[in-house]
Amino acid sequence: MQRLLLGVDKLSTWLGHVFAWLIVALTGLITWEVLSRKFLDAPHAWVFDAQIMLYGVLFMMAGAYTLAKNGHVRGDVMYGFFPPRLQATLDLVLYVAFFLPGVVALVWAGWRFGLESYVIDEHSSIMVEGPPVWPFKFFVPIAGGLLLVQGLAEIIRCVICLRNGAWPLRLQDVEEVDVEKLKEMVHVKDEEIQELDRLIVRKQREEGRP
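and the corresponding structure tokens:
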């Protein structure tokens, strides 16, 4: 089960990293448009729609990634002081009562939203002969589906925590720097660490510390 949970985390993290490059594309697009408008007197009306769509895709595809990293903002400031089982109970209730119905509705409505846009070959109405918007709208159910998968993994984590009394590891917990690799990177041997420990203990005794 832990392998499955980490696999879902890896998928959400990988997709988050991939779509994060859209910010580079968005920055380049806006820079190019500003220079083209300012110095070449050649504005492009479609850029306005394109930058909105790029940012929208970036924002939507970050949902599952943020949930995998446990990075969503919590409204309860006392949550961090609760024991793990109480945290898991609260999370499980909120996931079942609010998250699942909301995200399932998002996927269902988003799919119909995108499909209708595709059937009529919807284009942006902001400008004449605007770019098609149905590819952008299809990202609503895609992002919602990924968020739903990650949410199901979080629900399983809650159940495991209720059973074991401790939260199962997340991907970032597993990816912590290995101690042995860290020693190799800084060229430190175990004997040198032990010698340093003895030196510190000896110095503390000389100063009369406990």
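(Above: one complete record from the training split.) Confidence is low (pLDDT under 50) at residues 173-177.
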